[in-house]
Hints:
mainly alpha
Amino acid sequence: xxxxxxxxxxxxxxxxxxxxxxxxxxxxxxxxxxxxxxxxxxxxxxxxxxxxxxxxxxxxxxxxxxxxxxxxxxxxxxxxxxxxxxxxxxxxxxxxxxxxxxxxxxxxxxxxxxxxxxxxxxxxxxxxxxxxxxxxxxxxxxxxxxxxxxxxxxxxxxxxxxxxxxxxxxxxxxxxxxxxxxxxxxxxxxxxxxxxxxxxxxxxxxxxxxxxxxxxxxxxxxxxxxxxxxxxxxxxxxxxxxxxxxxxxxxxxxxxx
Length: 257
């Protein structure tokens, strides 16, 4: 939630009861007030004038990055946010900023829809380890959006995000293991990913999938899958990137046969 700093309103503590006032005192008081106002008000105005609302909050560390672009976006400075995310990608190789750009070029809420640009930025983000970008890139390959449909590549990127703990990706790659689409058919691994998706907050579809698999799996297979769930540890971005890179190299080697 974005917090906006608001200057405090200060009220005078007590009203002064004036019994008698002469013209001289009134003039002196007015002169004193004018002098004090001119002395103290000018620095405040000067400070206010230096604030540029179209710039990111200077307290955000590491900018340009996803957060500094998000700060602008939430305040309605959309062109500035897009430019900030582009700088973050170019200068800092920010995978999260690339994901946000890919999302915007696909959704076309504040920019013209540009599917090739969306694919380019989500690819950058996915290879940089952002699990949201990995999920979106997998969806592109799964549905043939801006790229040639390829379920093997979809499975690679779904699983990369799933290993980082993304529940939607865990469900999606679970369906691929259950169906043998893009990966070898494996009910145990499918069950594991479905259960992880449920625990991660994606229960609606995954619960039905677990019930469906339970009817065809042996008790020993369910036990094995349950043990795999218990031992599951989320990968760091670097680990996810390394595993995806190895899977892509194997895919490319197999494609050349």
